[in-house]
Request: fold
Amino acid sequence: MAQYDAILLSSFGGPEGQDEVIPFLRNVTAGRGIPDERLEEVAHHYRHFGGVSPINAQNRALKAALEAELAARGIELPVYWGNRNSAPFFADTVREAHAAGDDRLLGLVTSAYTSYSGVGQYREDFEKALADTGLGEQMSIDRVREFFDHPGFVTPFVEGVSSAVHQLRAQGIADEAIHVLYVTHSIPNTAAEASGPSFGPGGAYVAQHLAVASYIHGETAPAAAWSLVYQSRSGDPRTPWLEPDINDAIDELAVAGLVKAVVIVPFGFVSDHMEVMWDLDNEAVATAEGHSLIAVRVPTPGVHPAFVSGLVDLVLERVNDVPVDERPHLTELGPWADHERVGAADAGNGGAA
Ligand SMILES: CC1=C(CCC(=O)O)c2cc3nc(cc4[nH]c(cc5[nH]c(cc1n2)c(C)c5CCC(=O)O)c(CCC(=O)O)c4C)C(CCC(=O)O)=C3C
Ligand SMILES: [Fe+2]
Reply:
C-alpha cells in the first residue's frame, strides 16, 4: 500500500475578474515570447466574459464532486486544490496541506495527455512549490498517470458523440453527411515530438489523440468521416504548430461540399473552459455556420459521474499499488506509466511499510 495523506487537484488556473486578466496572462506566458497582439487578443476573450474564466468554478465543482465520491466510497483523503497561473497557487496550497499535517500528496492533474504543458510543467510547478516553501524535505508529491484512455475520461465523449449523431440523424442527416472533428490544443511541432519521440513526428501527444479519437469514433459513428484537428495556436506565426486548425479544416470541408454537419469534440480538455467557450463555441461554430453547415459541440467531462469516479479509481490504483497490467485503458497505448515523485524520497511509497 502506498501511503498518501491527501489528493492535490492540480490545474491551470484562470482570472475571475477584469483586474486579474493581465496578471494571469503574464503568468501563463512568462518568458515564452507570446506576441503582444496575441496577448491582447486573448485578454479580449476574457474581457468579453467580464474577465472571468469558468475554469476555477469548474475546479471547485470538481473538488466538491471528488469529495462526495470519496466520502461515498468511505475513502478518507482530503482534497486540496492548486493552480499554475492563478490563486490558489501551488506554494500556498502545499503550505496549507503541511499545516494540516498532510505531507504525502498525490497529484491529480487536469491534463489528460502527455505534453510539456500537461506533464513536465506540472512537475516543475511541484518542485518550485516545495522549494519556495522550504518543505521539500518533509513533503512529497506523486502524480496520477495521464488518463487520456481511461474509461472515466473517454466515456463522457462517447456519450456526447453518440447523442450528437442521434440528434443529427433525427434532423434527417445521414451519417455519411456528418464529419466528426476531434479537436485538441495545438502545440509547437517540436513540443509534440518531444512528448515521446519514439511515437514518430507528432510524438506521444499526437499518438494518444489519434488512438482516443479512433476509439471514440468506432464506438459512436463509424460511418461518418472524422479527423484530428487543432485549436488555440499561439506563439510566433513562423514557428510550425500542429495543424490543421479547426477553422481551416471546416473551410476545406465546406469547399469539398460533401458534408452537411460537423460534430465538434473537444476531447483535449476536461472542462468547458475559455478555450472551449471562445475558440470553439464562438469561432469554430461561426466558421461552420458561415458555410451553412450545422455544428454540434459535444460537452467535456466536467463533473460527469463517470469522470469523477474514474479519477477516484486512478487515485485508488496508486493507493493500492495496482499492477500495471490490471490498470484500465481503452487503447493499446495505455496504461500510461506513473511519474517520478517530487520531494522527500523517503515519504509515501514503501516508507511506512
Ligand atoms: C497542451 C495544452 C493544454 C492542455 C493541457 C493542460 O490543461 O495543461 C492547455 C490548456 C489550457 N490553456 C489555457 C490558456 C492558455 N494557454 C496559452 C498558451 C499555450 N497553451 C499551450 C498548450 C496547452 N494549453 C501552449 C503550448 C501555449 C503557448 C504558450 C506556452 O508555452 O504556455 C495561453 C496564452 C495565450 C494564448 O492563447 O496564446 C492561455 C491564456 C487554459 C485556461 C483556459 C481558461 O482560462 O479557461 C487551459 C486549461
Ligand atoms: Fe493553453
Q: What stands out?
A: The longest strand covers residues 178-185.
